[in-house]
Amino acid sequence: MPLAYRGRFAPSPTGPLHAGSVVAALASWLDARWHGGRWLVRIEDVDGPRCPAGTDRLILQQLAALGLQADEPVQWQSQRSVLYEAALQRLMARGLAYPCACTRAELAAAHGPRARHGELVYPGTCRPAEPSPGALLTPSGRPTRAWRLRLPDDARVLWQDRRLGSQEQDVARQVGDFVLRRADGLWAYQLAVVVDDFEQGISDVVRGEDLADNTPRQILLQRSLGVPTPRYLHLPLVLAPDGSKLSKQNGAQAIGEPLNELRAAGRTLGLPELPAHTVADWLARAVPAWGDTIRAFPRSDPHANHPERPAV
User: Fold this and answer.
1) Closest CA to 206 of 80, 34, 83
2) What is the pLDDT of residue 111?
3) What's the pLDDT at 142?
4) Which of 180, 238, 242, 302 is deepest in the core (most CB within 10 A)?
5) Is 264 left (phi over 0), alpha (psi -120 to 50) or beta?
6) Smallest Cα–Cα separation from 232: which of 203, 194, 259, 265?
7) Quick one: pLDDT at residue 304?
8) Which of the residue ranges 69-73, 123-127, 132-136 would you say has the lowest mean pLDDT?
């Protein structure tokens, strides 16, 4: 029996929604509606120091103004630490997570300028020669700063994106054993998002193309935890005037009039111009238009047990 479609929008409350985040919110909502599924909202505030007080509530107000209402109660990552701790303990018990004493300065000195999107490829300094279930000390005996996932011998991930098509990444060579819990004690994004997607039964992840690079790490972590891999759809990005991804860091402005914002997001997603005078009317017309858009996506899909739109 096909899995029920469950999608989500998971903003980080480091600032209000802007044009780029509206694209992700709208597309994830449209995909859920077109598939006859459910749409959830998760506030990814696991990095609390970067999240100004009240920004999460502002985002929820903005979503409501856009007509994008969650089908279930909103979840906050900051309230889910017990789930992340349990996942880390499972990995530790199987020797799939290990303690790391390395500082960022030490990693930078180990391989000079070899960086990837500002993230140093981990050279395996603290990786035990063999899996060490339950180990709490680093091989050198230095105090633990962070916890890392021990990648399998073959960490080359092949995966299929619904829009981008076939993708591949050698995670060991391009990333290395990545962090699960940071040196400051905060949970890493990769662990939190994998645990949350599983616990919330997410079947389909619809998000910006800039996050496609994270997908192979999340797939390896899903395999390590023995949880299903969702389908992925990575969206075109809204670009700043200099050609970089529009973001809060490069001056993205908070959204304005909701209907105009929806129309602009629709254009980015390849929807036609939809005649409408209200948000509700525009969204009603956008759902079938989204179906026409996704029919142009690549058809090869290894996740055959995922749902298609039910017959009407």
Assistant:
1) 34
2) 66
3) 87
4) 180
5) alpha
6) 203
7) 38
8) 132-136
pLDDT at 309 over 90: no
Q: Please confirm, yes or no, whether 248 is among the known catalytic residues.
A: yes
For the CA atoms of 246, 12, 17, 197, what is the dihedral angle to 10 degrees?
A: 100
C-alpha angle 291-296-297 in degrees, rounded to nearest 5: 95
The DSSP bridge pattern shows strands 115-116 and 38-43 to be: unpaired
> Is the distance from CB of 250 to CB of 240 less than 8 angstroms?
yes
Q: What angle do CA 210, 308, 217 make, to 5 degrees?
A: 30
Residue 60 · residue 27 · CB < 8 Å: no
Beta-sheet strands, E only, within 11-53: 38-43
Token pair for residue 156? 């080359």
What b/e readout covers 49-75, taking b as 16+ CB neighbours within 10 angstroms? eebeeebbeebbebbeebbbebeeeeb
DSSP β-ladder status, 75-76 and 38-43: parallel
**Calpha distance 12→179 (Å, rounded):** 19
The proportion of the chain whose per-residue pLDDT surpasses 70, expressed as a percent, equals: 87
Q: Contact at 8 Å (CB) between 206 and 27?
A: yes
Tens digits of residue pLDDT in 31-62: 999 999 999 999 999 988 889 999 999 999 99
Residue 168 to residue 170: CA distance in whole angstroms: 7
Average pLDDT over residues 282-301: 86
Q: Give the active site residue among 90, 156, 182, 248.
A: 248
Cα separations (Å) of 9 from 161, 202, 208, 259, 265?
Answer: 17, 11, 11, 19, 15
Alpha carbons 292 and 183: distance in angstroms, whole number: 46
Instruction: Enter the DSSP assignment of 297.
Output: S
